[in-house]
Amino acid sequence: MGRRGANALGILLACCACASALDPSLAISQYAHTAWRTQDVAEDFHGPFTQTADGYFWFGTASGLMRFDGVTFVSYAPPDLKLPSRGYQYLLGARDGSLWIGTTSGLGRLKDGKFQWYSDPAKHKGTVKIFEDKQGTIWVTRYHLSPGEGPLCRVEGSGLHCYGKNDGIPARYALGLTEDSAGYLWFGSNVLYRWRPGSPATAYLNELADRQDAGQGVNQVAIGESGTVWAAIDATGAGLGVRYLSGGKWASYVIPGFDGSKFDALALYVDRKGLLWIGTDNDGIYRVRNGRAEHYGIAEGLSVKSADSFYEDREGNLWVRTDTGIDKFRDIPVITYSTREGLSQAGILTVLGLQDGSVWVGNGSAIDILAHGDHSVLSAKEGLPGNNVGALYQDHRDVVWLGLGGRLMSYEHGRFKEFKRPDGSSIAKGGLAQSPRTPTTRSGPSRHSMNSFESKTKPHPW
Fold first, then answer.
1. How many helices (H) and strands (E) does the chain have?
2. What pLDDT is attached to residue 386?
C-alpha cells in the first residue's frame, strides 16, 4: 500500500464469520451495527422481543404484537385469537416452537395458531420474566400479588404452580431470573435468592432489605461459566449498583473501564462465548472481555444511552433493546481496524501479512502488530530505529525487511539491522521486492537505481 492510503482511517482485513455467536476477539465497534428506531418504523419498540423456532422475531409494542421476518414489521392480531392488545412485559420463544407472552395481567402462550392464558388476566398478576430451564420447564417471576401468593411459578399442565413462603421462598415479588450449573434458580427481589424445589431459599445481599436507598432491590442476575454471580441493584452508591459473588465473597464489581457502584444496570447477560454484557440506565452498554470493560454508547452509534435488554438469536447476532428502538450487532466478513480499535495512528503507509498469521501495519512513526486477537505497537520506545515506515516485506526465510525513513532495515529475532550501499551511505526511500530466482532482497527505486542485498541468514533445513 502506498501513499494513496496515507489518509485512511483504518484498514480492512478478511475474516470468517462466526455461526453461533459474535466473535469474542473483536471490539464491539468492529461488528456490523444496525439500529431500528421508533421513527423509522412508526412503532414504539420499548417492549419485549424474542425469536421463535421458525425464525420469526416477535415484538410486544404499545399497540400490540408485531412480527418481523428480517425485512418487514407487520402487526400480528388474528381476530379469532384475542391476543393481549397492550401491557407486554416479556416474550420467550421456547424450544418447542411456542411463544410465551408475559403481560401486566398474566401469562399466555401462542402455539400452532392458538392462544391460551395460563393465568387469569382479570386478576392482573404482572409477569416480569419468563425462563426456560435446562429440562425445558417454563418458569415465571411475578409481582402485584395478594398476600400469601408465590412470586415464582412454573407451568404445569394448563396452569401455573406457584411457590411462596410455604415452599421456602419468603419474597413478596420476584424480578430477574436465571439458573446455575447445579440446577438452582437465582432470582432477584428485595434481596437475592437461590432456590430449587424441595429446599428453602438461600438469601444473599441481606443488607439491602434494611436500606432505604436500595430501590426495589436486585433487578437482574447473571451467572458466568466459572460460577461467578453478578447482581444488579436498583440504585447506585456504596454497596449498590453491580455486585458480584466470587470465591464466596460479595464485592462491588470494579474492573478497568467499569465501576459497578456508579451504574444503575438495567440488564445483565452472559453470551454464548461467556462474555458479560451490561446495559445501563444512562451510559449505553458495556462488555467485559479479558478482565476489562469495553464501552459502546451514543458516540459509537448506539441508538440511545439507555439499554435494558439483550438477546442472542439463532444466527449468533446480539440484539439490544433501548429506550427508542432496537440495536443489532453481527459478525461480518470484513473487519475494520482504526484508531478507535487501538491503532497508534490513522495515516497508514503500508500493510504486511506475515506467514505466522500476524499483520504489521506501518504508519508515520510506529508499526502496529495485530496477532490472533492481540494488538501491540513497535515504536521507538520498543526499539524501532526511525520513523516513516514506508515499506514492509517478508522474505522466504521469514526475515522482515523495512523501508524506514530512507534506510533499509531487516528485522529478525527481535533485532534490527541496517543495510547500506558499498560506500556506507543509506539507501534512499523505495519499495521492497524479492528476486524470483535467488534469495535476494531488492530495494528501489532510488533515483534511477535498484539495489540488491543478499541476507547472510542460513536457510531453514525444510
1. 1, 43
2. 82
Look at residue 366 in the predicted model and tell me its pLDDT. Answer: 87
Cell readout for 321 is 433493546
For the chain, domains (ranges, CATH) are 12-337 (2.130.10.10), 346-454 (2.130.10.10)
Counting as low any pLDDT under 50, the low residues of the chain are 1-19, 429-430, 433-453, 457-462
User: What pTM was estimated for this model as a whole?
Assistant: 0.79
Q: Are 88 and 46 in contact (CB under 8 A)?
A: no
Tell me, what's the pLDDT at 372? 77
End-to-end Cα, the chain, rounded Å: 31
CA distances from 363 to 1, 182, 263, 367 (A): 11, 52, 38, 6
* Selection from 189, 175, 173 nearest residue 267 by Cα: 175
Q: How far apart are alpha carbons 304 and 439 in whole angstroms?
A: 57
pLDDT of residue 316: 95
Cβ–Cβ < 8 Å for 162, 126: no
* Rounded-to-integer distance, Cα 178 and Cα 116, Å: 25
- What is the distance between the alpha carbons of residues 389 and 405, in angstroms, rounded to a whole number? 7
58 near 93, Cβ under 8 Å?
Answer: yes
By three-state DSSP, how is residue 386 classified?
coil
pLDDT of residue 454: 52
Which region holds residue 4: left if phi is over 0, alpha if psi is between -120 and 50, else beta? alpha
User: What is the pLDDT, as a whole number, of residue 44?
Assistant: 64
Spatial separation of the C-alpha atoms in residues 87 and 66, rounded to whole Å = 14
The angle formed by the CA atoms of residues 365, 379 and 295, to the nearest 5 degrees, is: 90
Alpha carbons within 13 angstroms on the beta-carbon side of residue 334 total 4
Q: How far apart are CA 211 and CA 111, in angstroms?
A: 44
What does residue 262 show for φ and ψ, rounded to 5 degrees?
-100, 0
Q: What is the pLDDT of residues 147-169, one digit of tens each?
A: 989 999 999 999 999 999 999 99
Residue 18 burial class via C-beta count within 10 angstroms: exposed 0-12, middle 13-18, buried 19 and up: middle
Backbone φ, ψ for residue 307 (5° rounding)? -135, 125
Strands (DSSP E) along 42-87, which ranges? 49-51, 57-61, 64-68, 73-75
The owner of cell 474492573 is 255
- The pLDDT tens digits of the residues spanning 59-113 come to 998 889 999 998 888 999 998 889 998 899 999 999 999 999 999 999 999 999 9
pLDDT of residue 335: 77
**pLDDT score recorded for residue 280:** 98
Angstrom distance (rounded) from CA 62 to CA 89: 11
